[in-house]
Design goal:
The chain is mainly alpha-helical and about 200 residues long. The protein is built from eight helices and no strands. The longest helix is centred in the first third of the chain and has 33 residues. It is globular and about 50 Å long.
Length: about 200
């Protein structure tokens, strides 16, 4: 029964993690080869579109995992609320990626909304890892990584915002925000690792 209980969510966790790693690879190649911030046009722009599509798979595949985790943890209103919020954020990310691909929303608008949705997903990882750690409902390897991962993205946003404000006074806002941008990038690249650890150890 226990194996049946975790079998399907484990497969979804594998799917989400693998899709996330593929999305990371496509994103890195996009910035290296397509050079989106340069004026020169080349034939590698499709990497960005491919990344958008794979992100849809990554976040939709995470929804069954979120629902399953809710039932594995001690019942509480916090778990119910943060799970519902995270699922809504995952659906939002997928929809925003599809709208971007379809040309319905501009990138400048889409990225702000996606970052806000990401923040909710990371908060979910942080809070669920905290509950799972304190209740011993999840393995320590899962919860420790989840605590670090969940805290890293909000921290990166705070460092970036503070650095940008301080740097604006000196005329170098992006340079001052650099540490936060680096931390945020590493946090984003590490997100797919959590469901893979979950799939392997739960």
């Amino acid at each position: 029964p226990a194996e049946q209980r975790i079998g399907a969510p484990r497969l979804w966790a594998w799917a989400s993690g693998i899709a996330g790693l593929l999305a990371n690879l496509l994103l890195v190649l996009f910035f290296l080869l397509a050079r989106p911030f340069s004026e020169a046009q080349n034939s590698f722009g499709w990497l960005g579109t491919a990344n958008d599509w794979v992100l849809v798979v990554q976040f939709l595949a995470m929804i069954p995992v979120a629902v399953a985790l809710r039932s594995w943890l001690p019942p509480s209103r916090l778990v119910q609320v943060i799970t519902a919020t995270a699922v809504a954020a995952m659906v939002t990310v997928a929809m925003l990626q599809l709208l971007l691909v379809a040309g319905v929303v501009q990138f400048d608008v889409q990225v702000l909304l996606v970052v806000a949705a990401f923040l909710l997903v990371y908060a979910w990882v942080l809070l669920l890892s905290s509950v799972g750690h304190r209740s011993a409902a999840l393995p320590r390897s899962v919860t420790r990584f989840g605590l670090l991962l969940g805290a890293s993205f909000p921290l990166a946003l705070l460092i970036t915002a503070a650095g940008y404000l301080i740097g604006s006074a000196t005329g170098h806002p992006l340079a001052a925000a650099g540490p936060g941008i680096v931390l945020g990038t590493l946090s984003w690249l590490a997100l797919p690792v959590w469901p893979l650890i979950l799939a392997r150890l739960v």
